[in-house]
């Protein structure tokens, strides 16, 4: 649960939202989580329910069908869902932060009217195709190309690890591609990166088989291949050559929501371990009465508290229009490490039961590792924080 001090940083509406999503997570998502995890299938019916609740429209204005809330509200929903199922939480986080936000921030009115209504309503999902075999943290190494032929962009290349890219309701993928060369301020030549909207089902766009992942089994993740893919020139998202700058803003915001997701995972592990410690009796007393277990739970609570304060700080700066890049990286770093540590400790408290996949903490143990990798590795976050300190090494 959100600490009283942290709750005081929220509005009444935000506190109510957090409670409503928490109840939905406990009553709808949690009971089905193990089944869908073993089936490795995204439950579209649950996604539609989330859409009907308005979760996909939280940070968007009512003019485009949204709820008129802010990024804090989105993060609260993501955290509440991640307590019980990280896969469902990341479907929301990526669908909004990576899928919709680029269209909302940089799209033309026609592009917004074409794509946002169904996306905001949770009827469709969108994806963001950035990562490649040699380009992820180093986006400048992008190999996918797009060239203008008449009134069309012709795109060739491949992407990997793309969330929400192959679901039955995926409608569009934003692809980053090299569209030419540009001159840097120091006179060097560098790739010109642009973003282009590619509708699902476009000839030449092939969605590869779903990855056999360690965790996040319910989350939809695929490689993409683009061979002579043709889309109208009007599908350019934002200005030509601004793809790099635009997606940096997207990633900075995404790291805040990602940190909220990791905080939710850490919270879920704490709740499960605390319940078990108060129920499990060994040698005539509960294991929670043992100092080692009690101290372990205390450390787990400290991690959750710290992680939540970090993402709240970053999110509130974003909402108020203040710089938040370094704060987002701090939040991502602290929360991802908290999730991994809490998953490890919770599994240990459960003993043999913590090694069973039907146990939520076992699923968190498998799922949480990717939190230290996705949306910028731990090393990338350290690099950003070091730069903010004035260090250039």
TrEMBL record:
Domain Acyl-CoA dehydrogenase/oxidase C-terminal: 241-389
Top-level taxon of origin: Bacteria
Domain Acyl-CoA oxidase/dehydrogenase middle: 127-229
Recorded GO MF terms: flavin adenine dinucleotide binding; short-chain fatty acyl-CoA dehydrogenase activity
The keyword Nucleus belongs to this UniProt entry's keyword annotation: no
Domain Acyl-CoA dehydrogenase/oxidase N-terminal span(s) in chain numbering: 11-123
InterPro entries according to UniProt: Acyl-CoA_DH_CS, Acyl-CoA_Oxase/DH_mid-dom, Acyl-CoA_Oxase/DH_mid-dom_sf, AcylCo_DH-like_C, AcylCo_DH/oxidase_C, AcylCoA_DH/ox_N, AcylCoA_DH/ox_N_sf, AcylCoA_DH/oxidase_NM_dom_sf
Database matches in PROSITE patterns: ACYL_COA_DH_1
Keyword terms: FAD, Flavoprotein, Oxidoreductase
CC cofactor: FAD
A Pfam family matched in the record: Acyl-CoA_dh_M
EC numbers: 1.3.8.1
PANTHER family the UniProt entry points to: ACYL-COA DEHYDROGENASE, ISOVALERYL-COA DEHYDROGENASE, MITOCHONDRIAL-RELATED
Family the UniProt entry places it in: Belongs to the acyl-CoA dehydrogenase family.
Protein name: Butyryl-CoA dehydrogenase
Native source organism of the sequence: Isoptericola variabilis (strain 225)
Lineage: Bacteria, Bacillati, Actinomycetota, Actinomycetes, Micrococcales
